[in-house]
Amino acid sequence: MQMMALAASKLAALGATVNSVNLGSHQLPDGQHLPLPPVILGELGKDPQNPTVCFYGHVDVQPARREDGWKTDPYTLTEIDGNLYGRGSTDNKGPVLAWINAVETFRALKLAIPVNFKFIIEGMEEAGSLGLEKLLEEEKQCFFSGVDFIVISDNLWLSKKKPALTYGTRGNACFFVEVEGGDKDLHSGTFGGIVHEPLMDLIALLDSLVDPTGHIQIPGIYDSVAALTEEERKLYESIEYDIEEHKNNSGVKKFLYSSKEEILLHLWRYPSLSIHGIEGAFHEPGIKTVIPAKVIGKFSIRQVPYMDLSVVKQQVEEHLKNVFSKRNSPNKLKVSMPLGAKPWVADVNDPLYKAARRAIKTDTTTLKEPKCLQPSSWRYQSYVGSYMKRPAQRLTTDRPSSQN
Ligand SMILES: [Zn+2]
């Protein structure tokens, strides 16, 4: 909320008209209502001769604590050797500020700004942009009318040296798989060996999703994935990408694939499935001989063109029900998809991409980014119907949403 107010005042200081749109509240699983931060809609310049550029950014961050391994206080911007460290410095407060600074610079140099600006700044991106889609739809004919171009600076460079322009993102379909036994946790001394344990069912379900080579085991999931053309395969050969550097950034010893092309194809071009956590399982240090009554597994699928969200949802549900039925468990199974974001892809030859290449004035990598950052990105295009580009302003080594 504080950050939203700060962003609004920064825009107002530029002379922009600022409208903080109230998004109401969000109901938590326990029934509690939490107010959502407002979305800022700012407007600067209305010259009908100039094109209108809409800039999207977010000023919320993922949680960070010193104990997570930060060398400095994550909420105090700290300069070390010319680099700025702090939560959000790269994702995404820094890029938002860069755009505000760019307008300030034009002003300070008394240069005419060749475009009209519209700013949309939100504070819920890291939580799935709650409430944003509804606002986009409502504002389609109002705030977004007359927008010619959309720019989102919320992604990564691929290498340390070459700037990157993103022309696509994978989608993200998040799933909950819930297994419920009785209405209370049990003790393994009293019940271990005579009950169908929900956590055992869940682990079997989660284990059925992906094989050790990373291949998704859900029947039909690859059916709609666009076939890889020879021309596209060639594009991957010329991309500058340092496997060792990426490996060092990740802290892991080995990737699933060894060639640059295979790694990039599996990051951008093919779907992937990740398992994120289990709610309700005992996870604290030490021993507790509990048999949890209800556990919820959380996983997500990064889907690619032309996988359809509703089909993916159906395939996941059918697969899990099928695996579960073979266990003859009396426990209750529930599968849901609380978040679904479609993949997005743009034409790298449209005018905005050409302008971006000119602006960067150096050789660029065009990439489909390795991480979908903002579930609603495709919707801007569908609601606004304009060109969109995403110049990346941060390096992979900036470790967005990680420690410094
Ligand atoms: Zn971001």
TrEMBL record:
Coiled-coil region: none
GO biological process terms held by the UniProt record: proteolysis
Residue span(s) of domain Peptidase M20 dimerisation: 167-325
UniProt keyword annotation of Transmembrane present: no
Pfam families: M20_dimer, Peptidase_M20
InterPro entries reported in the protein's UniProt record: Cyt/Met_Dipeptidase, Peptidase_M20, Peptidase_M20_dimer
One Gene Ontology CC term in the entry: cytosol
GO molecular function: dipeptidase activity; metal ion binding; metallopeptidase activity
Keyword vocabulary terms for this entry: Hydrolase, Metal-binding, Metalloprotease, Phosphoprotein, Protease
Domain of life: Eukaryota
Family that this chain belongs to: Belongs to the peptidase M20A family.
PANTHER family cross-referenced by the UniProt entry: BETA-ALA-HIS DIPEPTIDASE (PTHR43270)
Designated name of the protein: Carnosine dipeptidase 1
Organism: Anas zonorhyncha (Eastern spot-billed duck)
